[in-house]
Amino acid sequence: MLTVLPLTACNQVTKSAKTEVKPVNVPGFSPDSAYFFTQKQVDFGPRVPNTAAQIACAGYLSSTLKRFGAVVIEQKTDVQAFDGTTLRSINIIGSYNPKAVSRVLLFSHWDSRPWADNDPNPANRKKPVMGANDGASGVGILLEMARQFQLQQPNIGVDIIFFDTEDYGATESSKIPNSEDSWCLGTQYWAHHPHVPGYTARFGILLDMVGGKQATFLREQSSDYYASEVVSKVWSQANSLGFSQYFINQPGGAVTDDHIYVNKITGIPSIDIIQYDANSGTGFAGYWHTVDDTMKNVDKNTLQAVGVTLMHVIYTEK
Ligand code: AHN
Ligand code: ZN
Asked: Which residue in 2, 13, 23, 197 is a FRET match for 56, CA 20 to 30 A apart?
């Protein structure tokens, strides 16, 4: 008896000391693979709603998420665009640990803008945008994260949503009322009709234009308004991983984007990781909504900074 007690006590000390310093096992993230998944989408051509490329790419996204072990739901619905066009919108949802109560939501839009209306050359302004950065890059990172989730299941539940019909919005010059609500149509639909009734998550993270060379991500203003603690969590994680040249801990612009509707309609505190360039006039990269948004602007180092940061955010969540 006497020998057992000190042994037990000693054991416990060792055990608790161990749990204190136990390093979190965060799986890797391959930027080559994220780049490949970005390229695959671009190879379908512009993923404009109501086109064959949209249907083909939807199939690719769903089957890839399934291959990586997600429970996949395709949420199809008709939405009305600002110009009266009926868009056959397809949100693609991939869930990990679908029964877990504690969840995180990761999302990106996957559609391409039908018009390069910001192109310096007027002859290009009716052509579609390829959307290598604007669309495909965020999805490419999330597909690589999905591949890693299959190799080592996260402790929490994770939902990946690829939202359609984000980029069919009216430009300011169109002068239609409430033109900002003409963007993010797929997200607005999902937020009113989530794939699981009463769906909620601890927080949400939107990836938008996350592949640009030497991109800078500043604290987007609405993200700070709705979810400043989530912004701080992500930016400090990036900083401790050595990515502070990408994640700048300063206020950026305010952007009407998918996270706004997730915040307003579902109440899930959600942030936007979006490239901000104060010197460009639009606030975005110079090739934004031009025919130049192609793979040549997509940089593996940026994909890596965002992907590795988010892997740490997911795997340090308890
Ligand atoms: C507006 O231009 C109002 N919002 C930008 C959202 C967006 C478009 N993100 C990518 N493309
Ligand atoms: Zn866009």
From this structure: 197
